[in-house]
Design goal:
By secondary structure, this protein is an alpha/beta fold. The chain has one domain (about 1-310): P-loop containing nucleotide triphosphate hydrolases (Rossmann fold). Helices cover about 35% and strands about 25% of the residues. The strands form 4 sheets. Strands 6-11-12-3-13-14 form a 6-stranded mixed beta sheet, with helices on both faces. The protein has a 4-stranded antiparallel beta sheet with strand order 2-1-4-5. About 40% of the residues are buried.
Length: about 300
């Protein structure tokens, strides 16, 4: 249920996210039940502060990259923005267009337009990829899908050498039939080089690591959220897989120019294909330095100790 809740979104114009002095501990409402059989781990983790005063502001249409070593709090930040009940916010605010969303459940945050692409996507045996994405789309608007047809997205024309050619997306009316929804989704899947039977497969069950990451991108393309958070979408991808995923993210940012993206990563390699507006470095639960894309290159060359020495 949490997975589908995080997918729910609606087509909207823009979102402005602001995080102010955010402090987060392990031990939210679902923590006790999740760790009921792991007593030692529970005692070690419960009450541990992971985010220690994070400040971050993401404007509409911006691409932000959050880098940092293992255990710096990057993935926790992503989960907290999406509303994972495993974590307890004990100080600070997360505001969307001026509204504090701290008390909103994951599905309500997602209805605002927040999408989280997971670092380790879960499997849902017996439920097809098609049904998960269709249900996510329907959850906002009812039986008629809110999925924008690929055909509608490709209707914009440009003129080159006096000839019309297919260019970028134009606003189109929503798909109204299951058949159209499936056809459109198949085109997205094909663009990600997913197999022809991908939509009928159980959600993430038996998928390779690369297929799971591309399945996250498939959902992003289908749902057109206002704020996309991709948690280490590049991890485990080979060179070809990285180019494919990065190309899809880049295309999404062009077609959805008012949607914002937060990319969480260890490495700068994905930035060979995507231009970031801002790069932030996290260590020990805080953003300790922010800059332009050059900062990511410096980190790649000199390591995270470079930031600590400044």
């Amino acid at each position: 249920m949490l997975r589908i809740g995080l997918l729910r979104t609606q087509k909207v114009v823009e979102m402005n996210l602001k995080i102010n002095k955010l402090k987060v501990k392990v031990g939210g409402p679902s923590f006790a039940s999740s760790y009921a059989k792991a007593t030692d781990d529970k005692k070690a983790m419960e009450g541990k502060e992971i985010l220690k005063g994070v400040d971050l502001e993401v404007g509409a249409g911006e691409v932000h990259v959050v880098m940092g070593p293992n255990g710096s709090g990057k993935s926790t930040l992503a989960q907290v923005i999406a509303g994972n009940p495993m974590y307890k916010v004990h100080s600070g605010q997360i505001t969307v267009d001026g509204k504090n969303i701290i008390k909103l459940s994951p599905d309500k945050r997602a209805k605002l337009g927040i999408f989280l692409g997971f670092q380790n996507p879960i499997e849902i045996p017996g439920v097809s990829v098609f049904n998960v994405i269709r249900k996510a789309s329907q959850s906002q608007v009812g039986p008629a899908s809110s999925f924008p047809p690929v055909s509608a997205q490709l209707k914009t024309k440009s003129v080159r050498n006096g000839k019309s050619s297919v260019n970028l997306r134009a606003a189109g009316s929503p798909s109204t039939t299951v058949t159209q929804f499936r056809q459109d989704l198949l085109k997205y899947a094909s663009s990600l080089k997913l197999s022809s039977d991908h939509l009928s497969r159980s959600f993430n069950e038996g998928f390779s690591g690369g297929e799971k990451k591309r399945n996250e991108i498939l959902q992003m393309l289908a749902l057109s959220p206002k704020l996309v958070i991709l948690d280490e979408i590049d991890s485990g991808l080979d060179v070809d897989g990285l180019k494919l995923v990065a190309g899809a993210i880049k295309k999404f940012s062009i077609l959805n120019s008012q949607s914002s993206i937060i990319l969480i990563t260890h490495y700068a390699r994905i930035l060979k294909y995507i231009k970031a507006d801002f790069v932030h470095v996290m260590t020990d639960g805080k953003i300790v330095k922010s800059g332009k894309q050059k900062l990511a290159t410096e980190i790649e060359e000199k390591g995270y100790q470079f930031v600590n020495s400044l």
